[in-house]
Structure formats: structure tokens, C-alpha cells
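Many introductory courses stop at the sequence. We go one step further.
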Amino acid sequence: MMWNGTAFELSGPEDAPVVALIHGLGLNRQITWEGMLPVLGARYRVLSYDLLGHGESAVPAGEVSLTALSEQLVDLLDHLDIAKAAIVGFSLGGMINRRVALDHPDRVSALAILNSPHEREAEAQAMYEQAARDSASGGPEATVDAALKRWFTDEFHAENPDMVARVRRIVVANDPANYAAHRYVLAAGVTELIRPDPPIDAPALVMTCEHDSGSTPAMSWAIAHEMTETQVEIVPDLRHLGLVERPKVFSGAVLEFLQNCSW
């Protein structure tokens, strides 16, 4: 389905509580959530969609910002007459769902923040922002192979070359300018989310992987310490795209968390 340039899907029981899924930079709704959708869709009404200019969604005419990305979801919820949802966000999506919770707390029943970045040292922050600016010239193809090494374990690369190649095709297919704009939000947007006042008080699951170099376990603990009601899970061995590499680990944790929330 398509509305106002946003491609989306709804699945699961129509009368069930709503869970909204937000993918990360350069990806799309299918590759990110296909391992989790069957599990969540058996119990919940699941909304998945493509970020601005990603997948089947239209490239935005205006500026890409964390607020613009959060309002994309809020506008979609309004269009679908969904008053409130549990919002599951991966990487950049885990920044977007926090922005929604800060700006529209009445729309959020729970948050799952998966492999999402947080405060960096000043030197690292400057480096990330500059790398994002530089990516405008080379496009996603200039950095995708290095990213894939950070995203999947060596064993997964060796045993699942077709899936790695599929992820690569999806990333490379992104419009270079739109990709760079979203990459800059991923780099710079964390500064909007540090030490929120008042803190986000929605129930939250904060989850990452042991060897995720960009969304580290320390970052997940920092996110949790700045919220009022959180649980943290660190998945051993995996890297950034652990939810694609071992989706059952993530779907099981998210399902258990949601089942324990008051809707």
C-alpha cells in the first residue's frame, strides 16, 4: 500500500494492539523484518513501512531530519486512525522511535530500541558527522562493503553469501543524496536524544549485539539509564545486523517484552 509517498503494509489480526516497525539506514521493511513479522503478526496488528526515499517510498522534497522522519510515522498513524502503537526501531529506527516518544508520548505504548546509537565522545562524534557529509560524493556503494563486514559475522558471510549479496543490492540501490542525508541524521541526530528532560517514560526494551561497533552495549546501557522503565539485552557474538542473521533471538525477545507490557 502507498499513502502520501510512504509505502507500507499492515498484517495480523485487525482488532489486536498495533506494533509499528522502523528499519534502518539504507535498508527496507522487507529485508529488516521478514524474520520477525510472522512471530509478531500472529498476535499483533503489525505496521511496517519504508523510510523516506528507501525501498518503495518516495524521495522527500524537503530536508531530512530526525523530526521529519518521526513525523512520517505519526502522519501514517493518523492516516490509519491508529491512536497508539508499540514502536520497534532498528538502528536509525531506534532513534526515530525515541523522537516520536519525546514529541508525541501519548502515541507510544512501548518502545523496542534495537542496535541503535547514542552519545559518542566528541572526537568520534565529529568523525561520524564528517564521514556522513563525505558520503554524498561516493554514494552508498563507496562504503557498503566495509559496512557489510561490520554488520555480519565472518561465519554468516561464509555460509550465507546470497543474503549478504541481497543486503548489498538493497543498500546500493539507494539514491545517493537521500542516503547521505539519512546517514547524516544517523550521525548527528543522537545529540537530540541525549539526557532527555523529562525522560521517556514508556516501557522500553533496549537491545544490541556484543560486537556491534556502532551501536555498542555501552550505548544501550546509556540509553536505558536515561529512561524510566527499561530492560537491556545484549546478544552475544553477533554484530550490527544480528536481527537478520539470527531473527529468532530478536523476535523472541521483542515478543516476550511486548507480552509483558500493559496495553
